[in-house]
Amino acid sequence: MSNLETAPEELVCSDHRACAGIELLAPRDVPLGGPRAMDVRRTLPQKQRSLIGAWCFLDHYGPDPVGASGGMRVPRHPHTGLQTVSWLFTGEIEHRDSAGHHAMVRPGEVNLMTAGRGISHSEFSTPDTTVLHGAQLWIALPDRARHTAPTFVHHRPEPMGTNDWTVRVFLGSLSVSADRGAEHYSASPVHTHTELVGAEILMEPGTRIKVALKAHHEHGILLDAGCLKVEADDVPVDHLAFLPAGFQTVTLTAGSKPVRALLIGGEPLHEQILMWWNFVGRTHEEVVKYREQWQAEIGAEPGDASARRFGAFPDGEPDPLPAPVLPTVRLRPRN
C-alpha cells in the first residue's frame, strides 16, 4: 500500500538501545486522502521506535464499511528497498505490479512483494467487498539485498492450535503451547532476507498461551480486538507492545473478550535507513534520485520497460500517483 500522506516526513531509522521491559506504542491516525478515503492507525515508525527487527512500517485499518470509506483505492505507485506484507482480516484486495504479478489478497493469506531496486503496483478493494479490515506492513531490506530484482510470493499458512487458540505463521517460525498442553510448531516457507517472524494469533476468552521467542530478536504484538495481557501488562486495542531482545518466551492471556493480534519480530537490522514517502534508501541523494526517476517515468511515452526502474503497467489502468513535493531542506533525521 502507498503512503498517501501529502507531506510525508522523512525518517532516518536505526536500532535503538533496548529497554528493560515491555514498551507500549500508541497509534496515530493518518488520513490517506480525501473525505471518503480510508484512515489508518500507524504504530511504526514513530519517534521513540522506528524499527522492530527489519519491520519498519505498520498501518492497521478497519473494520471500515466500504460504502462509507470508499475502501482501498490506491493506483499505481513506486517502492524501493523494501518488502510489503499484506494481511487481511476481512475483505479482498486486488494486487497488480510492474513485474507482471496479479493476485488477490484474502483473509488468512499473505502476499509478500519485494521491491528491491524498484517496482510499482496498485491495490484496489474488490467490488464484492463490503467491509475492509487488515494490516499493511513494510520490511526494510538489508544493504546486501536492496538492489535485487523485484519478486512476489503468495502463501496460505496452515493454522495450528486447539479449539481455544489458533496461530497462523506467515513468516518465519514459532512454537506455541497452552497451559499443560502440547507444544505446537509452524514454519513458513516464504523467504526473507533477514531473520523475521510474522503471525496472526486468535484466542478465546480466558485462554493463556506461551510463545517461544528467539532471544536475539525484537518483537511487537499489535492488538486488533479483544482484551489481552502481554506478560503482566494490559495492551489497549490498536496499540503495539514492544518486547526488546532478551525475551525467550512471552505469555499472552486473553481477558473477557476474544483476542485477535499480530506478532512481528526479527533480528535487529543494525543499519540506518532513510524513509520518505514510498522509498527506503540510505541517503538524501538516493531518495531524490528515486523521486526524479518516478516522476520522469510516469510522464514518459510507453517504451522499453527494461530501461525503467519502476517497470511498465498494462494499458487502461488508472493514472499513477505522482510523488509529493520534497521538503525544501535536506532530508535528515528529526531531532
TrEMBL record:
InterPro entries: Pirin, Pirin_C_dom, Pirin_N_dom, RmlC-like_jellyroll, RmlC_Cupin_sf
Stretches assigned to the Pirin C-terminal domain: 200-296
A matching Pfam family: Pirin_C
Positions of the UniProt region annotated as Disordered: 305-325
Residue intervals of the Pirin N-terminal domain: 39-139
Coiled coil: none
Top-level lineage group: Bacteria
Assigned protein family: Belongs to the pirin family.
Protein name: Redox-sensitive bicupin YhaK (Pirin superfamily)
